Amino acid sequence: MTRPYDPSMSYPGAPSPVPRRARRRWPWITLAVLVLLILVGRLAPPEPDLATTPVAEKATTSAPSTSPPPPVTSTAEAVAAILLAAPSTARVVESPAAATAALIQLSTLEVKGRAPKTGYDRGKFGQAWSDDVTVDAGHNGCDTRNDVLRRDLTSVVATAVSGGCTVTAGVLADPYTGTSVSFTRGQTSSSDVQIDHVVALSDAWQKGAQQLDATTLRNFANDPRNLQAVSGPINAAKSDGDAATWLPPNKAFRCTYVARQVEIKADYRLWVTDAERDAIAGILTDCGGTPTPTITVAPTTTVPTTEVAAAPPIVEPVVVPMAVPDPAPVYTPAPAPVYTPAPEPPSSSSSGGGYGGGSCGGDSYINSAGNCVQSPMSAPSAPAGASAQCNDGTYSFSQSRRGTCSGHGGVATWL
Fold this sequence. Notes:
Elements: H1 26-43, E1 71-73, H2 80-84, H3 96-106, H4 144-152, E2 153-159, E3 167-174, E4 179-184, E5 193-197, H5 201-205, H6 214-222, E6 227-231, H7 232-238, H8 254-267, H9 274-286, E7 364-366, E8 372-374, E9 377-378, E10 388-390, E11 394-396, E12 411-414
Antiparallel strand pairs: 1-2, 2-3, 3-4, 5-6, 7-8, 9-11, 10-11, 10-12
Helix pairs in contact: 3-8, 3-9
């Protein structure tokens, strides 16, 4: 009996069944993984790039990557061209001639009182760290903060995905403190290194910047000559002080610091106060500068002339007056001496909380910073060199904000 052919049955001589083609699922799995990685990269919060003010860094326009980009060091050829786009080195004063040049430039600045801070707002200086400026390194594709980090840091590490623009690590030789600070970009570590405006924006606003247009204000806030990478704590300590109220603790950098302030204020037509001018002049003089350079005059050459016979002298007749007897002397008694009491030395209560005299003299005191300054005094208006008006109406000459007017009810107005 012949059986019908059944492919599911195995028997001798029967052909082997053909297996079904296996489904290729791996391309779909790979695609799903890639989509998931892209979504995670887009949803992850961007790492902030902190600056001196809490303004968010502009969003990056580079395409997302599925894996962290490898770091590229500043010495690698791949980013050498990017690092060359960093701003040029800022002004440095290291000789008496450079200090003299800064003193001459200081004499060209207008001297006026500080204007009110009315209307000041950080936003008037444009978006923080904008690349849309016409100063050095403007429109180079990198924001100003990273430009200054690439200029002022050594051992720079930048991300390849940014083309070597975004600095992720480096070492700062802080000129304000003379110390070394390691920088690592991150949520809590970026603030270890901040960018200081050498002439603070608020100080500039009160000394002429109110008259500048929006483009010039944006240039001022991003001008590399007015920017310096420093440690976070020292930047906070400076706040918006000028040269009369704050100077870098590192005395070796003070000449360069005030010379850069003079350069910026001259270029942007800003003025200085009396106290600020005197403080800057004193520092530059200590650095060997002189207000007027010495001019050497070459010796004159004697030119021979033809001798001319001298004319005979004119003899005038001599008239002898008749003798007139002297008048009789008149006795005038000498005026009685006027007694003037010696001025009393200022008491400790009128010395602004200092030690009243001592090694500083009778009209000075030692402030909380350890400096000898003039004691607060009463006057109908602010005397020259006064830095603050106290609540009791006196004026203080303190060069440090700490302890000023401490014995006079505190500071009423900073001058």
